[in-house]
Batch of 4 targets.
Target 1
Amino acid sequence: MKKKVELSMANFLAALRRLEKFSSMTVTNDRDRAGVIQAFEFTFEVAWKTIQKAIEDEGLRAVSPKGAFKAAFQLGWILENEQADWIQLLEDRNLTSHTYREELANEIFQRIQLKYVIRLRNLFDRMEKDQVAD
């Protein structure tokens, strides 16, 4: 594994662990929920940038999150039965940056807890397995 990919994977893992920790805690107020959403945003950014670095070794290029996740699908890091969740995840990430509505924040928070943490963990695990195999 190339050094820059290895460092990026370590950053991805650290962000993912923080998201897993925060999303498993009891959320009692808006601040806690906002913390989980912010951890999701950060993990998302680290994830797509890690994909961007890793796919260069495969001769692929991505300049956007959508392109990175498409490449991850092509490489088997995202499975076909997960695609709908990843499309929603990407849409939700864009919404968290540009819109704030209480109801929407609650919906995204629930998806983070129920789906997105799992999808991000699966992505990391598959990427790590693939990188170690190289």
Note: Residues 102-133 form the longest helix (32 residues).
Target 2
Amino acid sequence: MIRRRPPVLQPFIEMRKNTQSNYVNEQLHVHAVALSPKTASEIAAAKAELVEPLSKAFANSTFTKEQQTRILDLCAKYRPVFSLNRKELGKCKTAQATFPMPPNTKLVNRRPYRANPHTEAVIQTCVKDMLDDDIIEELPSQWGSPVTLVARKDGKPRFCVDFRSTVNKHLIRKTWPLANMESNLDSVGSAKFISVADVQSAYWQIPVHPDHVERTAFVTNSG
């Protein structure tokens, strides 16, 4: 039996109050500054690591060479903020994923789905990689959800845990209002530049509450 440190499908996260947002932003900024490269050699190494991914980002941009250099310098200054691979994933320290359920909820343990040899090999490779990257860990659990592969847009397989019939149906659901998208767009309509930050493998950076970790266990045909 293997459990996930963070949730995979349709996670429900215990959100903090809005008053916490400034604190979170401040903490992230302080953390980045504390870990930013200090010496000239460290800054040069950071730039070397970021040149290739930024070059791809600049491929269809209208930034001048000077602007591209300024962006590279800024990104190199905060190099620890950027993850170039799964071993560099961060860990959220301001919230934990929770799976609240009514008292006396019955434990659910499903059998793994059948899979052809090729699919099973891909699943086992994914599990091994996640174990090696310290994303999941093995443990005995009375809960168990089957896994499946879902094709990404680029055709590559996405490893998913099917919580629908095990965890999700027992969750105490919470509703969170969404802001009006048109109002959001109006608020940035006069901006010259708009940046978007995509948190890499975001769910894997949110730790699960210790009391709920067992509920995220999943099973494969190999255990």
Note: Residues 40-57 form the longest helix (18 residues).
Target 3
Amino acid sequence: MEEGRIGLIIKKPGEAFRRGETLLEVESDKTTVEVPALQDGVLIEWLVTSDQMVPVESAIARIEIEGEAVAEARKAEAPASNAPVLRSVQRHHVGVSNARPRASTAARVAARRTGIDLSALAGSGRSGRITRADLAAASRPARATYHVETAHGKIFYREWPAHGRQIGTVLLIHGLFADSQSFTTLGRKLSTLGFRAIAVDLPGHGETQSSAETIEDLAAAITASLPPEKLDIVAHSFGAVIGSKLMERARSLTMLSPAGCGEEISGAFVDAMLGVQLDHAFQLLGDSVPLEVQTSLAEHLSTHGRHLRAIASHVSRDGSQMVSILGALANATIPVEAVFMRDDAIIPAHHALNLPFNVAVRVMPGASHMPHWRDPEALANLVAQIARRRG
């Protein structure tokens, strides 16, 4: 590898870090590498931005090491990490001003307690004043995971906080047999555009602990776990069926290869997944799946097979879908978009012809069931366009 793409930037300028703590992630065409701190210090300045391609052994940050100046950090290791290096230099205080950042008293107290540098933050309050909420956002983990306790069980979420000022929250709902990790790239793209992205594991999937099996029960479990604000919902495949039940909580609904819009569905795919015949299932999926994901999916299907089979029985039978969302979509009072893959082998693109007039339809070229894997940037921009049109 001669270059890598800067992925998730975790530490912000002004933040302290400890030896071994991850500062950022670097992506290659095959893997994502976490770049750790070699010793304790403070991040002074990033020399790169998220999504930027940089040559291996490039300097990517200026950092201050506690108690000494270090000329240069380690070179990138190959082939295991092969990530751009961090160059560490002594921090020079030139022309220090007595002026303090505009911040509320509560924000200053929180900053002293957490060690966050207020000068590194952009305030969201009046006249740019830094508020306690800004401190909370700055101290939130860059990729949080958590459970939400509900009467239906513990619902698992994966979160990518907004970069800069937040313009909205996007709820990502995966399809049958998937989980929240399938939205990792799209979640990151949305966060760089100013959205807080939260991806949920449906009951029977991922790390959610809920016995819900019917579509109504799944929708009720997710509804009970949602944050109070209105959401922009992005839902893939079977997730669109759940998303159609949540429109009262939504500002918009973007469906990717949606189920519930026609009769046909690949029974061979459903049977292959339930039978843990993953090679055949992935051929129908139309996209390569990393080996580690295949392994974890096989374990999950074996462990939760009964629950998944019960859920699938409410979705399809013998290659026919058992649920329709067309009526709900026709009555939608929010913007609804549907994105199909032209040569999808699991849910055919001609289902777009069944959609009501109020649903905008887009078709991506390619033989895949995963538009958010094929072009996550285009889909993130689509969500942003919807938000701008809505005002």
Note: Residues 76 and 82 are 5 Å apart (CA to CA).
Target 4
Amino acid sequence: MVQQQEPIDSARDWVAEHARRYVASDGADGHLWRGYPTLVLITTGRRSGAPRRQMLIYGRDGDRYIVVASKGGADTHPLWYLNLMEQPEVQVQVLSDRFTARARP
């Protein structure tokens, strides 16, 4: 992933630590979280313009990666979802594979 500045991690310490371990190990440490596969998603902050890094559980549909913006069942959308709705070009890392993608709702 080519970034002009370091991404800002989640404000939740355990999520930020998960992201740092995952990226540093190319996913060897942290790909599975509680038995579920995870990926790194970097969005562009819709207000700040800064890169924002989040860890998400994902599924596959053929060669597509699927993530769900559930925010744990809350009535509001997670911030990463609001960011990608504003700027759908994102950076993704799955294990050691890093690529640019275009998010679709």
Note: The longest strand covers residues 36-44.
